[in-house]
Design brief:
This protein has helices at residues 10-20, 46-61, 94-104, 170-176, 178-192, and strands at 2-5, 26-29, 65-74, 80-81, 112-122, 128-139, 155-157. It is an alpha/beta fold and 193 residues long. It has a single domain, classed as Maf protein, CATH 3.90.950.10. Strands 1, 2, 3, 4, 5, 6 and 7 form a seven-stranded mixed beta sheet that branches. A hairpin with a 5-residue loop joins strand 5 and strand 6 (128-139). The protein is globular, with a radius of gyration of 16 Å. The protein starts with a strand and ends with a helix.
Length: 193
Amino acid sequence: MKLILATNNQGKVKEYRDILTPLGFEVLSQSEAGIHLDVEETGATFAENAYLKAKAIYDIAHCCVLSDDSGLQVTVLGNEPGIYSARYKGLPTEHERRMAILDGLKDKADRSARFVCCVCFIDEGGKEHLFTGIWNGTIAEAESGTNGFGYDPIFVAEDSGGHTTASLPISFKETHSHRAKAVGQLMDYLRSR
C-alpha cells in the first residue's frame, strides 16, 4: 500500500521506513511523491499540527497519508519546548536547542521529561485517525551519543538502563520510542480494519 509521509525530515523518514516497510507499505517522503509543500504548524497541540500536515498532503495526493508531530516536554520548564521542539527559542541548530534545555535545568532537582508523538493517519477515503505515544524519562547532565537526532543526546528514557537515546542502537528507539508506541497503535488499527 502506498503511503506518503508528510515530512522531508530524513531522521523521521528512516524511522518510519524501518517500521512500516516490513509490514508491506511503500513509504514515500512528500518530496519523493513530488509534493513540495511547507505546511505552517499553527496548531496549539501535537494532534492539531499532525492533522494540519496530513490533510494538506491528502488534499493533493488523495491517498493514504501519515504525519506526526512530536516533541520533548520538560516538566520543570513548563513542558517546554513542546510543540516548539524543532524551533525552540528560535535557535538554528539541534545542538543549540539541546544546550538551551541543559542551561534551563542547571541546579534543578527535577529533570523529568517525556517525548510525545501524535500520529495522524488519513485513509484513502479521507478519514483521519489519531494515535498518541508517550515515552517518559529524564534529561541527562550533558550530551552523550551520536545515534538519532534532535534531543536524543540528552534524553534518558525510563527503559534505557541510564543511557541517552543517542547512546543506544537506533533499533532500541525504533522499538521503544514515543513514535514507535503511536505507530504501534496505528498498526493495531490497520490490522483490524
